[in-house]
Amino acid sequence: MSTDTHEGTPPAGRCPFAIQDGHRAILESGTVGSFDLFGVKHWLVAAAEDVKLVTNDPRFSSAAPSEMLPDRRPGWFSGMDSPEHNRYRQKIAGDFTLRAARKREDFVAEAADACLDDIEAAGPGTDLIPGYAKRLPSLVINALYGLTPEEGAVLEARMRDITGSADLDSVKTLTDDFFGHALRLVRAKRDERGEDLLHRLASADDGEISLSDDEATGVFATLLFAGHDSVQQMVGYCLYALLSHPEQQAALRARPELVDNAVEEMLRFLPVNQMGVPRVCVEDVDVRGVRIRAGDNVIPLYSTANRDPEVFPQPDTFDVTRPLEGNFAFGHGIHKCPGQHIARVLIKVACLRLFERFPDVRLAGDVPMNEGLGLFSPAELRVTWGAA
Fold first, then answer.
1. Which residues cross the membrane (predicted)?
2. Alpha-carbon distance 139 to 115, whole Å?
3. Does residue 83 have a cis bond before it (omega within 30 degrees)?
4. How far is it, in rounded angstroms, from Cα 165 to Cα 36?
5. How many CA atoms lie less than 13 Å away from 343 in the CB half-sphere?
6. Which CATH number goes with the domain that contains 201?
7. 30: left (phi over 0), alpha (psi -120 to 50) or beta
8. What is the pLDDT of residues 246-273, one digit of tens each?
9. Which residues are 292's β-sheet partners?
10. What's the whole-model pTM score?
11. b/e for 340-366, b at 16 or more Cβ within 10 A?
């Protein structure tokens, strides 16, 4: 049995903290769903158990040919299976450990304070999305990769063009342009000395793992696409969650030691990453009584798996005191996002610094949502503070 869904833009009345109705229907019915993306049929799996299957079982490949995905590129490790995938992950592993993320926490706090200085200067009614939720991750990501503000802004604009494109041909053309620009940056960094990630990716001598220009460009592009926009949207979404749930904000203020729980709960509860990276089935597999055939595209629904009652009791309740439990916000399996630890630090610092700086900060109007196919988050987040 399967459930057909054809949602593109979620309905206008959708709750800002709800998963898509079509995805919920798949989860609640215990089925596998399907829908067309750019005219190509995709199977959708929603339950946590099924998401784990699709992201761990070698019968579902990230490297198999697919008419949906652009041509395979050197270094694009999100489109690779083991063992090829592992070589590139090992190259960057040291930059994305929990220890490395914690070392950057002071820098993240300084960057957050700089953003909040400008927000305070702008006065009540300011929009936190451009000046804080987007700017703060950009500052941190640029520092991580060794990008100038101008280089970071150009890459960010090109990524927005790709993710905002309405047809597959445009996506492929814009992706080619993006890779060409990233390749020029990599080649320029080869002639410079530096300890940041992009310089080391471009370095021809780095122990046992040396990357070509094209490989370094592919790794760099994979990291940017996997983490840049999604982290910006998640920071804004987390701020919105706490601003619109005063009882949870109060619990966190009363018990700051809950901050790690709060971050994990927001990652679980907020459906920012509605659809995972597609896999291609390489041999016939039966899932929930549905025959998924070799060559079929399959998408794991991460946000929906995070609402699976078999794993998370009362899954539609936002509770910062919920015991820590592994969630699917960063994916699952070997392709789990390498930047998960720095993303957690960004969310933690962004929330704590905002509420420390403006203890009475509150929403100052309706919050329109970005309701695209993949990511879901606040488009604006206007706030005020001080006397009512």
1. none
2. 10
3. yes
4. 16
5. 25
6. 1.10.630.10
7. left
8. 999 999 999 999 999 999 999 999 999 8
9. 285
10. 0.92
11. bbbbbbbbbbbbbbbbeebeebeebee
Split into its structural domains, the chain has a count of 1
CB atoms within 10 A of CB 170: 13
Cβ-contact 338, 92 below 8 angstroms: yes
Q: Distance (Å, rounded) from C-alpha 216 to C-alpha 184?
A: 11
Strand ranges, E, within the chain: 2-4, 32-37, 40-45, 60-61, 279-281, 285-287, 290-292, 297-300, 362-363, 369-371, 376-378, 383-384
Residue from 26, 46, 3 nearest 306 by CA: 46
How far from 218 is each of 73, 132, 200, 289, CA to CA, in Å? 6, 29, 14, 38
- Give the CA count within 13 Å in the CB-facing half-sphere of 138: 22
**pLDDT over threshold 60, residue 360:** yes
Residue 267 backbone phi and psi in degrees, to 5: -60, -40
Two tokens at 202? Answer: 């471009």
Asked if residues 299 and 69 have their Cβ atoms less than 8 Å apart, the reply is: no
Of 271, 323, 348, 332, nearest to 18 (Cα)? 271
Distance CA 385, CA 359 (A): 8
The residue range of the domain holding 274 is 2-384
Look at residues 178, 175, 183 and name the one whose alpha carbon lies nearest to residue 201: 183
Helix (H, G, I), strand (E, B) or coil at 285: strand
Closest CA to 134 of 145, 124, 142: 142
Query: Which tens digit of pLDDT belongs to each residue from 266-324?
Result: 999 999 988 888 899 999 999 999 999 999 999 999 999 999 999 999 999 999 999 87
Per the listing, tokens 């490989």 go with: 215
